[in-house]
Amino acid sequence: MKIIKITLITLISLILLLIVGLVAAVHLIDINRHHDRIAQVVYDQTGRTLSIEGDFEWGLWPELYLKGGPLSLGNAPGFDREPFFHLESFHFSVTTWPLRRSEVHLQTLQVAGLQLNLERNQEGIGNWEDLAAEPDPAPAARPHKKKDPGAGLPFAALALGGIQIDRVNVNWYDQASGQQAHISDLRLTVGALQFGEPMQLELEFTAASNQPELEVAANAQATLLYDLNAGRYAIKPLQAAATFSGPTVPGEQTTMTLHTLLNLDTETSRAKLEDFRLQGLGTLVQAQLAMHDLEAGIPGCQGEVTVEVADLVELLEVFDSPLGRQLTAVQDRSINLATEFTVDPQQGRIMVPKLTAKLLGTTVRGRLEADNIYSDQPEVLGGIRAEGSDLPALLAIAARLQPGADQQALSRALAGLRDRGLLAEATFNSEGADIVVPHLHLRALATELTVNGRVSKLDAELPALDGQARLAGRDLPLLLKVASAFQGGPTAQTDDGPPPGAELWALADRIAAARRHSFNLSTGFSAEPDLQRLSIDNLSAAILGLEAQMDLAARNLLSEPDFKLALSLAPFNPRQLLPILEVELPDTADPRTLTSLQLKAEIDGTPERFTVKPLRLVLDDTSIGGEVTVHDLARQDLAFKIEVDAIDLDRYLPPESEEQPVTPETAAAGTALLPVELLRELLLEGELKVGELKVSGLRVSNFMMQARARDGEIRVAPLQAALYQGEMDSTINIDARGEQPQLQTTNRLRGVRIGPLLRDLTQEQEKIRGRADISYELTTRGNELDEFKANLNGKAELSFQDGEVVGINLGRLLRQTTALIERRTFAADEQAVTDFTTLSGSARITNGLVSNQDLRMMSPLLRVTGEGTANLVSEEIDYLLTAAVVATAEGQEGAELDALQGLVVPIRISGTFENPTFRPSLDGAAQAKLQENLRRLQDRLQQEGRRALEDLLGVPLDRPDRKDPEAPSPQQQLEEELEERLRDELRRRLRF
Hints:
The protein is of the alpha+beta class. 18% of the residues lie in helices and 47% in strands. Strand 12 (199-210) and strand 13 form a beta hairpin.
């Protein structure tokens, strides 16, 4: 490395070349006649205007000299301050006669009145950048013979009278920030150069800036010692001083000084910096530094450095640093640093036997010994420890430096912190080719982190890691609120809703209200980036009342990742956890539900395709097991096989008081019954088994359902269960591919005890009992209730054996009618049931019209038949129910109906579902007999007849004081009251 020597040789060679050129120019060229041509060439090359305001002068004897000025160069386009460069005058000369002896005697080089205007615009573009454009690639250099470092100079002698540069002014303007800075009256003096003789250098200038508002008067002196032949150079000493003045300077004025010695030996490729001392502005920096192997890519060095800063804020405020303003509230603002180090890249050695630092109230101590760092088995040993007593102060500094941080929120979060200290320490050493970290410990904010691990594969792009870690804390809300403060705090808002800071603060408040402050996490870990592998072993976490265990193994993380995950959650209370996470729980009929949840699952696959097997879930008193396979997560294509031991779904339904009643009008008001778009996208295949199930009051067992959905076709088959000493077998098919979904369903109920079923379903006294067989096959299309009813087609059959109609005693009703006609009293305390041996019928449904032509009921007393229609669309009824007395009804506790044997009573049911009407229709003989008895009954209505009518009708009869000519006759009144009583009784009794 012979930079100075090469530079001097090059400079002198250029001067000689210039001398020869001047000699030729004096005789051949008159430059002053070509000012315009020179200016045009400069403009063509740079786009700038060159102004040569004065003539050039030159001569050959007794000195070869050149002088000129003034001259100036215009600014770049788009910049207004002119000129870019201006030079008042320059002069240089060489004694002519010594040149014949190859001796170069340069007189003093003089430059005066130089002005440079540097500027940067709003876009950040500088006015010098067009001049600094990269030149075209130079042609490949020819190979040359390496010069002997000790070879002499290409001239016999060299003498330099010196360099004198005066009145240099440099102006800086930044349009974007408004900053302006000026260097004024810069003077550089370089003393005379004689081979082997010391050379003096002096520099002085003044400077001023508006950002910061600061003035500086600086000067420097140095003595340069050199031996060009030996390649040795030294500056002994370099001394500089700068006086700062301005409103930001303590005392409005202070001086900073610099003293150092520098030695450079190009032959041995070594350099030394000695007695370096920078002092001022409450700062002292001292250093000793020795460097070697300077020609290497990274030279080696050894040294000592100490830094003392009495008040970092004052130092930063002098230069108007934003950091200084952010640190004003810090109490301990001093900095102390001392270190010793040795770095030898060639040997692969780094030694830091001592490192001590005190920064803003925090003390740091460390050491490092590293050898053979480029080998396969480096040797490393060291440790570091940082300890402070005022962590909130450090966090406050960080918050001031973080854009958008809420410093007030941070103060609120830390107000109640008892342990305000900080401790961080780590030790490390090498084992073979690995680095071992046996101990890493961090304690802060009532939280402790401990880690031990190993770093291997150090030659890879990213090394491998494995080890164990534990994180435990006593105040999770505190950590969340500190994190919130650094992300805007609790009151921050964005256009997209609450930012993370506000959400974290609210979460911390909910955790504190639930008294879930503590947390604990421990795990083993291993990461191999080169193999794209990651594993987490025996992770154990306890947080927010949740205890979890997890193992994870992941591969191909950067290509096609796949993983195996084992997860276990101990029983926890979702009603306590989910509100903390602001997850709204559904209202349930039983508030004791959702109070216990336990999970155990193993997941194997990729993020897009995976299997959960086995799956074990315990919800309250229900155990759920099975497996789930996700074939394509993006398309939600999944398969499942689930088994449930027992569950009461009614406990999980909304409370009855909160259910909104659905009337036919509201149900038909355009409400979609099926989620068509969801059904079209649904992709699933699965099986569900439930040992015991309760839903809507019904109790079933051995429930089994298989379902398949793909491309808009959904099939549920079989759908089976055992219920009420019988069994059910159903199928459901939905085709949602077309414009209107189509539904097809079949159902078979065999041997079902209908009484208990209805009692559980309605939570009321059942209206019919017996063993029932019911079946139907139905199809429809559409997605609104009206469409469903209008397009309903199919058939249905029902059969009841050995049953009872509860709530009406047809025998009693007939006996009452007979007693009334024959003017007899009757017993009122009979059981309100009607026995039957069979009740059967079938129906056909065509476009919403239900037709039944074969209703049959057989009992010891009656034979009942029925036929007619019910329109599901218009809700109109047209049905004829016929009852015939066939026996004495001994089984119905009476022998009074012999006279009625063979009597047929038809009842016409009409009207609508909401308001049906029931009207009896008697034949001629029964009508005549009824009329004859009514005439005889008219005279006895005061006593027995009136009581009989009141018993029959259930209401008292009016007792008019005088006869109303417009009042109905007793016959008409009896007919109307019989009709009304029959209609009301049938409407009330048959509503089941």
